[in-house]
Amino acid sequence: MALVGCGSGLPLHSLSNDDLSARVDTNDDWIRSRTGIGARRVAGPGESLTTLALAASRGALEQAGWAAEELDLILLATSSPDDLFGSAPRIQGLLGAHRAVAFDLTAACSGFLFALVTASQYLRAGTFKKALVIGADQLSRWVDWNDRRTCVLFGDGAGAVAVEACAPDADGLLGFRLRSDGRRADCLTLAQSRERQPLVGEFSAQVGGFAPIAMNGQEVYKFAVREVPAVLQELLAETGTEADQLDWLLLHQANQRILDAVAERFAIPNERVLSNLAAYGNTSAATIPLMLQEAVADGRVQPGHLLASSGFGAGLSWGAALLRWQGPKG
Ligand code: COA
Predict the structure, then answer these.
(1) Which of 180, 201, 232, 301 has its CB surrounded by the most CB atoms within 10 Å?
(2) Which protein residue has the closest C-alpha to ligand 1 atom 47?
């Protein structure tokens, strides 16, 4: 599987830490020092998960030099679709990717990495040739804006990567590991609300709906700083890669302290750690492709560069992938 194009979609409106401090009892200094976050984008009335994902998809197609009709597969990693039946088909329709099969995949903040690996299996098997992997979330509609422990962390956004089948010696997915541990599911949830409505006689039915995001921040922090280095270490050992061979560390953007702790564990200098937390916060499934797009666009990530990536989040779920960015042909 070769990674040949990427794109991003972001809401216009940016909400700074100072803006938020007018709503909840917080301040810029606390948020920056504990998380590295300075602002986050929040989707406005004309924006949605679909519009953000569409912008990201168009960017990735343009960079790859592909027409939408060439796509065989569209995978949308999201925990916040516009439609619980799935948002990928609507994106497929709006793109005009009429040949492509399109479906959603949910693995919270690990979703993009899980979707990228899923796409690679179809491409390596020869089932499909060209795929678009989108990571997108609009968590602003699911955070409790009165809960300062969580509302400062999340933002909206979308990123997409165009991937295509290739010869084994050109494969840009050099290795991967994926993990889940549902025993720790309660650490981070966006769970159904349990309200019921009376139906007939003694019968009642559950009313559809979800409670806002609930998180045990300290447990999630400990999980990330323990599991991410461990899974990366396994991946590096399995692929025979030394940390100093990596051009970039491309981690899920949840907290600068987590990025710093992982980088320190592998003695990777700050200049090789990609971070855009200050501008966007945690955009869940979108962070990795959004960060990749930014670093490709400004020339930091060059064709042939080796990136160690890791996603982690609710589930609990986590994983790592060793990637080589190819970029568009010619
Ligand atoms: N502004 C000001 N004070 C805040 C605050 C905010 N936004 N959020 C929490 N606090 C307060 C708490 O109320 C607490 O006050 P108290 O001691 O008077 O009770 C104090 O700060 C410390 O809270 P604590 O939860 O212990 O802070 P922390 O150092 O663990 O940092 C997180 C909190 C959320 C930043 C940190 O736990 C974290 O980053 N966890 C991982 C979260 C994550 O990455 N989630 C997504 C995974 S995909």
Answers:
(1) 232
(2) 313
pLDDT at 329: 83
Residue 148 has a pLDDT of 96
Cα separation, 315 vs 330, in Å, equals: 41
Provide residues with CB under 6 Å of ligand 1.
26, 30-31, 34-35, 109, 148-149, 152-153, 215, 217-218, 220-221, 254-255, 282, 313
What is the β-pairing status of strands 214-215 and 188-189?
antiparallel
Q: 2-170 in CATH: which number? A: 3.40.47.10
**pLDDT, position 146:** 96
Catalytic residue list contains 282: yes
Per-domain residue ranges of the chain: 2-170, 173-185+212-324
Regions of the chain with pLDDT less than 50: none
With CA atoms as reference, report the closest residue to 311 among 77, 140, 114, 106: 114
**13: annotated active-site residue:** no
User: What's domain 173-185+212-324's superfamily in CATH?
Assistant: Thiolase/Chalcone synthase (3.40.47.10)
Give nearest CA residue, ligand 1 atom 15: 149
